[in-house]
Amino acid sequence: MHMENFAPIMFAGLIVIMLIGFPVAFSLAALGLFSGFFAIEMGWFPANFMANLPINMFGILSNDLLLAIPFFTLMGAVLEKCGLAEDMLDSMGQLFGPVRGGLGYSVIIVGFILGAITGTVAGQVIAMAMISLPVMMRYGYNMRYATGVLAASGTITQLVPPSLVLIVMADQLGRSVGDMYKGAWGPAILQVLIFAIYTFLLGRIRPEYVPGLPRTARTLHGWALWGKCLRGIIPSAILIFAVLGSMGGLPFMDHAIATPTEAGAMGAVGSLILAAIHKRLTWQLIKEAMDGTMRLTAMVVFILIGSRVFSLVFQGVDGAIWIEHMLTDLPGGQIGFLIVVNIFIFFLAFFLDFFEIAFIILPLLGPVAHKLGIDLVWFGVLLCVNMQTSFMHPPFGFALFYLRGISDTLFKEKRIDRPVKSSDIYMGSIPWVVMQLILVAIVIFFPQTVTVFLDKEKVVDLDKVQLDMPADTSAEPSINMDDPFGTGSKPADGASAAPGAEPAMPMPEPMPEPTAPEPAPEGAASTPQ
């Protein structure tokens, strides 16, 4: 076997072990180690090449940027359990409920706001389904629309800053987290608009699918209703501005005053303050939030270690060169590359979590995108838009699993009068997956949707650089070339010095060379030094 044939075999093995279902962090590390020992046995690289592995491990664990993940996770876990979602959904539902499709609008808007302050899909889907699904079923909303909008509004979290996916993208692509956040705002807002437009059109074409609530369903009116809405929105907006603004992650901010890790720590403290404002800050809440943070952080670190073991060996057998040659020869240049990569990521997301895709696949694709002249911030945000679908499409969409579990719980607790069919959950997700793919196409063909909020780089055209020389070239030089040292002596050819020149200071006389002391006469006493 030749080494150039081994990289495709490793890549095929990667796909196989990910389809098996065993925890990918351990199976990926095992595949990398086995492939490394095989490569050493075949003489493709020396045994001391694997000595780079411990250095890589220490490099991962000492990466300060990854500290932002537990901080943002803790912030989301606290806000998920402090009742903020319930309060916002209740107030927004009463505000928009009488409008046709109003409950759908409220779920989309609250999903966007919660995504900007929590960053967790599971808690968001569960919280919104517990509050909104019984109300939607009670007032005759179409079951497939209800389940679809609840799942899709939870996945917006992965695109809205401070998304954990964007932090990982920035780390893997070597770009600023603040730039990734700025680039994600455009697609995130577009995604919300696309969902809202679909709800509006459905209300016009099939009004019985999304009926308006009767006015009698409101328990609050007037300023009391607006006050409850603002009590949920204003503290959230302050937290968003404090966290994202401090790290330069908001549009039209050209500098940062904090690192992502510092901003994440500030967000975790802010979430505790919000929980205290809602009078739900308890030791039990903190314990549960820290337990969830520990589990997610450990999962991320183990996946990252496993992917680094695989990628080290894959690079050693020239796998990166194989990937580069395969993808740079695609027809269509940048557009062809982006279309093929997004199709590949879309189908890979049927089986993999977004963290696994980001840690395993992105390091292979990033160098190729950079060589093709693709802006890596645009590339990262585009893949993040695509990876939203990993939570939505059957059979392994995690948002659908969360919805399946919470709907069963609601039926057992008699909060809904009939069970939710799995077919309604899966079929209801399809229109929303299509809308997410529409956004992928928009971002590919209109990169301004990402770059509009990014700082413009100052490009210097070297062909237009001009060097202006002084116009008066007849002036005497500042240094007398006939007497460069200013000794005042006349030139050897008898020419006089420049008229009006001041007499220069004389050069100091050179110091005499030190001479050895004369020997003392024989018999004379020596003088102490």
3D architecture notes:
By secondary structure, the chain is mainly alpha-helical. Helix content is 63%, strand content 0%. It contains 21 helices and no strands. It has helices at residues 6-20, 24-42, 52-61, 68-81, 84-96, 102-117, 121-138, 143-155, 164-173, 177-205, 222-246, 260-277, 283-316, 319-328, 333-348, 354-360, 362-371, 376-387, 398-412, 422-445, 448-451. Helix 4 packs antiparallel against helix 13 and helix 13 (283-316) packs parallel to helix 16. The longest helix has 34 residues, at 283-316. The chain is globular and about 80 Å long. Mean pLDDT is 78; it is low at 493-498 and 521-529.
The helical percent reads 55-70%
Helix/strand/pairing category: mainly alpha
Low-confidence stretches: 493-498, 521-529
Q: Tell me, what's the shape?
A: globular
| Count of strand segments | 0
Number of helices: 21
Roughly how many Å is the radius of gyration? 34 Å
Termini Cα gap:
82 Å
Instruction: Give a short account of the largest sheet.
Output: none
Tell me the fraction of residues in β-strands, as a range: under 5%
List the secondary-structure elements in sequence, H or E: HHHHHHHHHHHHHHHHHHHHH
| Overall mean confidence score, pLDDT | 78
Short characterization:
With 529 residues, the chain is mostly helical. Helices cover 63% and strands 0% of the residues.
